[in-house]
């Protein structure tokens, strides 16, 4: 294979590839229908021209045949009048017109056949153009649907694996971080106040519990025991120092236990 053939093949292949990529189905369909309509116009003009030529041939044939008939009658008239030479001349003219009529008849028959063929082709082309228009609209709709589906699938693919979903995930992480920082700031802002109230609540609770226990002990003790409790005295008598013999061992144990709990706080 020569170098020129190889280069020519490469050039044709590249050109075909460029043309194939540049072909838009919708535009090609529109242009194809336009070309078919132009062909239809040209075929109609050809049919009209053939019909006109057929009519001229028909008129010429009729005229030649009429002339042949006229010269036939004149030849008969000349013979009837006894003029043989004139009759012979009339027959010569009749023969010429008859031959012309016969030639025109052959041409006319061919034209009739050609016109019939052109008419059939014209009808077939009109049917094909009508069918092409219908198919063109259908193919254009299918092409538009295919383009829309291709764009949709491309968009879905980008959303599924591309940067769009990655951006959403990054923004979601940032929102979670912002919420976490907001909660931490709120907890830090209220930490000191909560601790202060906790100290107050714990302190007052111990004092209240101790006072309640003292009141319970005072309410349940007998008048003799009340005289022995710390901080109590009989009516009309001075307060005496508490006696260890009069102390209740159970109370002392519970008091010691409370002190131990307070030390552990």
Automatic annotation (TrEMBL):
Residues 54-81, 115-149 form a coiled coil. Residues 221-251 are annotated as: Disordered. It comes from the Bacteria. Keywords: Coiled coil. Residues 221-231 have a biased composition (Polar residues). InterPro entries: PspA_VIPP1 (IPR007157). Belongs to the PspA/Vipp/IM30 family. PANTHER family: MEMBRANE-ASSOCIATED PROTEIN VIPP1, CHLOROPLASTIC, PHAGE SHOCK PROTEIN A. This is Phage shock protein A.
